[in-house]
């Protein structure tokens, strides 16, 4: 039984019915591996810099740094597998690396994608609690709680990825070995339902939470008064970072989940091969946008590292008790771990 080649992740399309069996595997445009190579180099450099800053530049870690560091780790997961994907595309969608590395790639891609979404969502909750509920004593301000929460997230990611590691294997199609080309007919309905579950629980729900938290946080910051130039500048930067964080969700994750949903519907309802190939190209292109996420996050970290507690204090004024947490989430903390307070000028 033949099908279109599927490469990227546990989110790949699963063809199974008669119309889809007539579809031949197609070679993707050469521009895709070229762009992947460029993104890989950018991701490698930026994440290496971020890891270096976390380990050697920040002397005191606060609660916000824990979540940001785990987000860096989720981004760094892509580094060892992108060269394999680039080689796969460049060799005409022929997988020469064996079944284990194919399964490993599937597991890592799933863990990276949803690890990024989970930790971005947790960061939005942490920022909201730290500023809007600055005077409350909550677990979200305790490093011990966030460490345990991060470990629990990694546990969930592993549990979620293990079935994909076991089920999705290499297959021979059009005379070559494909990675993640599922051709068994019994997977069609199962994967349709699983894709709906992933979109709902792993994307729509986290995005809704982040959107709500940042909307409330933005409204709170917008209401803060500051007469000093430095205070106004930092207030503007804080609002800009909220917009950037939401933009990452929209740009990097919406295209992938939309194209994947359309793809599984096209295969489930046995539509034409031409339509299937069109959706397939859009799907792989959307993964390029998703990979941009691992390049944008380090830029945000480095922007945060430029912040200083005294600057943020000029925004908060009377809310000085929120400063340690806002610095930890919005600016990554001071490398000197300095403390202090200054009234709103």
From TrEMBL:
It comes from Chrysemys picta bellii. CDD domains: 7tmA_P2Y-like. GO terms for cellular component: plasma membrane. One of its GO terms (molecular function) is G protein-coupled receptor activity. The keyword Magnesium does not apply. Residues 46-301 form the G-protein coupled receptors family 1 profile domain. Gene3D superfamilies: Rhodopsin 7-helix transmembrane proteins. PANTHER family: P2Y PURINOCEPTOR 4-LIKE, PURINOCEPTOR-RELATED G-PROTEIN COUPLED RECEPTOR. Keywords: Cell membrane, G-protein coupled receptor, Membrane, Receptor, Transducer, Transmembrane, Transmembrane helix. The keyword Zinc-finger does not apply. Belongs to the G-protein coupled receptor 1 family. It is found in: Cell membrane. This is G-protein coupled receptors family 1 profile domain-containing protein. The chain crosses the membrane at residues 34-57, 69-91, 111-130, 151-171, 191-217, 238-258, 281-301. It is a multi-pass membrane protein. Its main location: membrane. Pfam families: 7tm_1 (PF00001).
């Amino acid at each position: 039984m033949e099908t279109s080649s599927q490469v990227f992740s546990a989110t790949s399309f699963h063809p199974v019915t008669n119309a889809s069996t007539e579809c031949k595997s197609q070679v993707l445009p050469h521009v895709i591996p070229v762009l992947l190579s460029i993104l890989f180099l950018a991701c490698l450099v930026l994440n290496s810099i971020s890891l270096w800053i976390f380990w050697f530049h920040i002397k005191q870690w606060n609660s916000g740094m824990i979540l940001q560091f785990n987000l860096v780790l989720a981004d760094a997961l892509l580094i060892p597998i992108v060269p394999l994907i680039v080689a796969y595309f460049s060799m005409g969608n022929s997988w020469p690396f064996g079944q284990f590395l194919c399964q490993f790639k599937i597991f890592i891609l799933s863990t990276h994608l949803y690890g990024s979404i989970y930790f971005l969502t947790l960061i939005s909750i942490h920022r909201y609690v730290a500023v809007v509920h600055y005077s409350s004593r909550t677990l979200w301000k305790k490093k011990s709680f966030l460490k345990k929460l991060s470990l629990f997230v990694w546990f969930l990611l592993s549990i979620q990825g293990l079935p994909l590691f076991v089920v999705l294997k290499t297959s021979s199609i059009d005379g070559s070995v494909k990675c993640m080309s599922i051709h068994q007919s019994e997977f069609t309905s199962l994967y349709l339902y699983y894709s709906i579950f992933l979109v709902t629980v792993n994307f729509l729900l986290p995005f809704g939470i982040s959107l709500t938290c940042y909307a409330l946080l933005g409204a709170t910051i917008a209401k803060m008064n500051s007469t000093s130039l430095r205070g106004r500048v930092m207030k503007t930067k804080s609002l800009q970072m909220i917009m950037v964080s939401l933009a990452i969700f929209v740009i990097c994750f919406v295209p992938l989940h939309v194209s994947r949903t359309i793809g599984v519907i096209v295969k489930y309802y046995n539509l034409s091969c031409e339509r299937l190939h069109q959706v397939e190209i859009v799907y792989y292109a959307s993964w390029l946008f998703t990979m941009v996420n691992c390049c944008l996050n380090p830029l945000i970290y480095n922007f945060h590292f430029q912040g200083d507690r005294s600057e943020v204090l000029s925004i908060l004024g009377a809310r000085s008790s929120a400063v340690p947490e806002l610095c930890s989430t919005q600016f990554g903390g001071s490398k000197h771990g300095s403390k202090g307070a200054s009234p709103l000028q």
